[in-house]
Amino acid sequence: MGNKNEDGEKLMLFDGVLEAMPLFAKELVAGGVAGGFAKTVVAPLDRVKILFQTRGAEFQSTGLYGSAKRIATTEGFLGFYRGNGASIARIIPYAALHYMSYEQYRRWIKHSFPDVWKGPTLDLVAGSLSGGTAVLFTYPLDLIRTKLAYQVVSTTKLNAPGMVNSERVYRGILDCFAKTYKAGGIRGLYRGVAPSLVGIFPYAGLKFYFYEEMKCHVPEKHRESILAKLTCGSVAGLLGQIFTYPLEVVRRQMQVQKLRASDNVQLKGTLKTLFMIAETQGWKQLFSGLSINYIKVVPSVAIGFTVYDMMKSCLKVPSRDEAAVDMVTNKRISQPTHQYTLHSFKYSSARWRLYTISKEVYMYFCTPS
User: Fold this and answer.
1) Three-state DSSP class for 243?
2) Is 326 helix (H, G, I), strand (E, B) or coil?
3) Mind listing the pLDDT tens digit of every residue in the chain (369 residues)?
4) pTM of model > 0.90
5) Cα-flanking dihedrals φ and ψ of residue 244, to 5°?
6) Are 120 and 213 in contact (CB under 8 A)?
7) CA–CA gap between residue 350 and residue 257 (Å, rounded)
8) Residue 183: how many CB atoms within 10 A of its CB?
9) Are the C-beta atoms of residues 48 and 291 closer than 8 Å to each other?
10) H or E stretch including 74?
């Protein structure tokens, strides 16, 4: 009996915490968990992709299997996760901001322009704005992750042919951050941000657009199944990548330019860098690692969307329609009648306590003395 009572009290406490959490906080938690989980699953493919984009001469000739074998030989299993600490440190706040700001932008646009922004265009615009917001806040962590992943450091006495620049420049996340800031200041931490922003606006918008659009065509009885969400997320990630991948290659090469001792050419400006890569390395380099990216993006976006939806369900995040109704209802509750208040909260003691405390605080600070 004691255990059952304790479990019941813990469950009530948990429900009370969930009730007290603001909607945006729940969306932040759901997005952060989804991003971190998805990124960890595809981290080895991400490492190989970055090496394809930035060390083309060394890795492209060996292909995916040969590149993976080379990393395993020179760095061991943990080599596949080099830079993943910085990646997780970035992706959790990035994904949290990305998903949360998407929901916030979507609600704000729908509320402010009810007669203009409707249908798929709403997801496209909200997704684009949320992608730009997340990039601006977390870009330095992406830069650090790329620099750490670019390093190929042998942890054994084996010398693989064709390997260059095997000296470890950065000892970890903090060391890389400090040296990057010392060398270039704030501008150094945001090197390559322009192609990131140019690329993220269409990619993030299209990703959310295709995901929400595909879910609309799934039969109602299958809409909540994991398989349906994985399928919709896979196609959304695949289609969103097609138009923006060359800009990612430009961004990666700009990020690691300082680490290339043999580079004499300064990469300046997104378009200039894009044409310079095409001229000096060939147009194929702009799509280097795209096949790996497809293999990575499909599970990454699919897992991200699926885990996000599952986390929203666990955190009792209301549906978008319910959230829109709550926005209107909350305005009415600010000056409620006793009958309406009791009707709204009589089924939840946690909500009633929260309302009572909020009312007392409001009366204390807002009532004229």
Assistant:
1) coil
2) helix
3) 556 566 566 667 667 777 888 888 999 999 999 999 998 888 888 887 777 767 656 665 566 677 778 888 888 878 888 777 777 888 899 999 999 999 999 999 988 887 776 777 888 899 999 999 999 998 888 888 778 877 765 544 444 444 444 456 788 888 888 998 998 898 888 988 887 787 788 888 888 988 888 888 888 888 888 888 888 888 888 887 777 788 878 877 777 776 655 555 555 677 788 888 888 888 878 887 777 777 777 788 889 999 999 999 888 888 765 555 555 445 444 444 444 344 333 334 444 444 454 445 445 434 444
4) no
5) -120, -5
6) yes
7) 56
8) 11
9) no
10) helix 63-75
Q: ∠ at Cα 105 (40, 293), nearest 5°?
A: 30
Cα-Cα end-to-end distance for the chain: 50
**Which string of b and e fits 216-242 if b means at least 16 CB within 10 Å?**
eeeeeeeeeeeebbbbbbbbbbbbbbe
The two three-digit tokens of residue 178, written as one number: 């400090």
